[in-house]
Specification:
Helices cover about 45% and strands about 15% of the residues. It is of the alpha/beta class.
């Protein structure tokens, strides 16, 4: 795409009052954006309001600067992955986005652009997950990637980051391991703690944004981008979510798009499980392994995930009988030291020593408020 064509797309995208629905109506009538701007006001007024038609006749504020910045960004060489701006007219624009009500006119992408886009599963959840939630996100995503699927998430702290990490660990070389759909411009990384992760995703996957370069992390942008996460995926798995979690927005949008929604059940005492339980009550599919998702979606690679799941059904432990009894008494719900002393009859000082060893071995997690939780494998 040349600079003049890019500038026309930017002008249409930046014109005040012209959203994606009106823009698609104009493009369907007149073709590429440069044809829109040469139309007389009377022709435009047949498709949009008079105010919108007048706005299309004027150059939008900041248009030239935005085009300059984008063109320079596209020309800069980078080892992190290919830089592209995909428009609705591009053959490489993801087809799944065309099926939603308001697809972005332009998508900024960095990384391994493939056409067609790979079969994918969205993995989303809490920014403040339990240790078990983090482990589940990572293990499920690793299994999906081993099965040849791409994992889509939002690069947020918590479940999103663990999902990207697991996919990068499990993907075969040369495959699009994971796609991160972000709520900022692609010239910045939010949260900053994920800078190194974003660089790895650009090398072995894709970073995607509908927002112009320089866009800061504005709160309304994050729930809006969730429709893209849902549209890029054949199904959405919610690992953990509070009742007011943005992950539930992704799940709702996936359902509205006719996609399957999956949820992992959790403790009735954990706030991070209440969103998943609400989804299950509303008809989401309960899953206990990555194989459950693959079989439901009838996606390729299920035998690979099944073999992996067979090796991780039960969490291994050190083999010491007293550790086995402590783990059995813990269960998988958060529990206080006092409650554990009552269950096991072990002296508090000795029990604390056992819990510390199990924590170092990755079998027990210490939670806020003096609670402990057993960590199982997904």
């Amino acid at each position: 795409m040349g600079r003049e064509e890019l500038a026309a797309w930017f002008r249409l995208d930046l014109t005040p009052g012209i959203g994606s629905i009106a823009a698609r109506r104009l493009l369907a009538a007149f073709g590429l954006p440069d044809n829109v701007f040469i139309q007389p006001a009377e022709a435009l007024a047949q498709l949009v309001s008079s105010e919108q038609a007048q706005a299309l006749r004027r150059e939008p504020e900041g248009w030239a600067a935005a085009v300059d910045a984008a063109w320079q960004w596209l020309q800069e060489a980078t080892a992190a992955g290919e830089r592209r701006i995909l428009t609705l007219a591009d053959d490489e624009y993801p087809q799944g986005q065309l099926n939603i009500a308001d697809p972005p006119l332009m998508l900024y992408v960095v990384g391994q652009v493939r056409s067609p886009w790979p079969a994918a599963v969205a993995v989303v959840g809490s920014r403040n997950p339990t240790p078990q939630g983090l482990a589940n996100a990572r293990q499920f995503s690793r299994s999906f990637a081993q099965a040849g699927l791409t994992v889509v998430s939002g690069l947020a702290l918590g479940v999103d980051g663990a999902a990207h990490e697991g996919a990068l660990e499990g993907a075969a070389p040369g495959r699009v391991a994971t796609i991160a759909v972000v709520g900022t411009g692609l010239d910045r990384v939010y949260p900053s703690q994920h800078l190194e992760l974003a660089q790895r995703i650009a090398r072995d996957g894709l970073l995607v944004s509908e927002y112009p370069l320089g866009t800061p992390p504005l709160a309304p942008n994050f729930p809006k981008r969730n429709r893209i996460i849902a549209a890029l995926s054949q199904g959405t798995l919610v690992v953990e979510a509070a009742l007011r979690s943005g992950s539930l927005i992704t799940a709702r949008q996936a359902a509205e798009q006719g996609k399957d929604v999956f949820a992992i059940p959790g403790s009735i005492h954990a706030p991070q499980s209440r969103g998943c339980h609400a989804l299950l009550k509303q008809g989401a599919k309960l899953v206990e392994s990555a194989q459950d998702v693959l079989e439901e979606l009838s996606l390729p690679g299920s035998r690979v995930a099944a073999a992996a799941a067979q090796t991780t059904d039960e969490p291994a432990h050190s083999g010491r009988p007293e550790d086995a009894s402590v783990l059995a008494a813990l269960g998988f719900d958060p529990v206080s030291l006092d409650a554990l002393v009552a269950r096991t009859g072990i002296a508090p000082s000795h029990l604390q020593a056992r819990l510390l060893e199990l924590e170092l071995e990755g079998e027990v997690a210490r939670l806020p408020g003096g609670l402990f939780q057993r960590v199982g494998t997904a």
